[in-house]
Amino acid sequence: MNSEKPLLSILLPTVNPNERVVSIISELLECEKFGFELIVSLNAPSQALELESRYESDNRLVISTEPQRLNVAENWTRVVEKSSGKYLWLIGDDDYILREQLSLVLELLERENLDCLSFNGWSYIFPSEMTKNLALSRPRHFNYKKSILGVLTHKKYEKIIKNMYRFVPLIPLNMQLTIFSRDTIEKIGGRFKMPFPDHIALMEFLAVAKIWKVVDQRWCIVGMAPSSFGNSAYKNSDSAGEVYLGLTESEVPPTPGNILNSVMLSWLETLSNTNQRFQKYRPSRGNYILRQIGVSYRRWRSKEINFAGLIQNMKRIPIKDLLLAISSLFSMKNIILIIKILGRKPGPEKIIGAKFEAINQMDIKALADDIRLSVYS
To answer: Is the pTM of this model over 0.85?
Structure first.
């Protein structure tokens, strides 16, 4: 590496440095700007990382190997420690950043002094058994409210936090859509925490960041590979997701639905109990139960479970929780959510409850190449 510290460190932790990882490394190193470094952390890899010699010799690339398997939080913390940039951009090995997108991000970071920068992206779900071997995509990964865009004020911070505890995220919970400064992560202890390292870190950033800018620009493709948590989370049973996260049944509320909602309830409670900034907040159990009921309904409507399965899921919900869910219906946001759920037609988008379309690009690089042609050429 050059003696001068880079402006941005892109952090890429991975277990299997396969062809997909080679592709994203090659794409980023084709960027003509030199204000960044790419830290690739191989977490007890099962195969070697094979790159062209011109990429291996690029001094913007740093490759480190962990001989013993680390958990997700440990590996993310380790890759932060090995970086040197003012800003950090943590991505998954199933995501993609075009060199043009990287250039735009660097230009913004050169102009402004920020603690955090949140933005948008495309979504891509890899073909798998879950998608019936279809590739799915949508042009906007997150639906930002106009009231959140720009530099966050104290009022906006409070609005984001309050809505998070109501299970209505106003910023994406995907770590790859927020760039954070080294100073910001050091303020929360310099490390990620299990079992939900990305969600907890983003919330703790909200407690310490002074200048947080939100822009509705698409600077990343958020991928979901067959081996990712997403494929585990959207099964009919939560057991696969629990195994992925290393949870036991006692740690996850037994309400049937989607484990993503259950783990959100868990990490929100964790923050309330461990972080002084969030002690006055408590997650809305009524909103949580209502969303779990919505998941069961979608699964029944899409014939993933039969009517008997739907009734069985409902019987597993205590009367007290059902009453809390009913009381939460008086919220306009929940009324709108219910209308959307009832009006949603079965199809590929049923898998995660949002509008996705089946596309022909059978890998994320193909989608990225099409985006380059349609947006950046």
So the answer is: yes
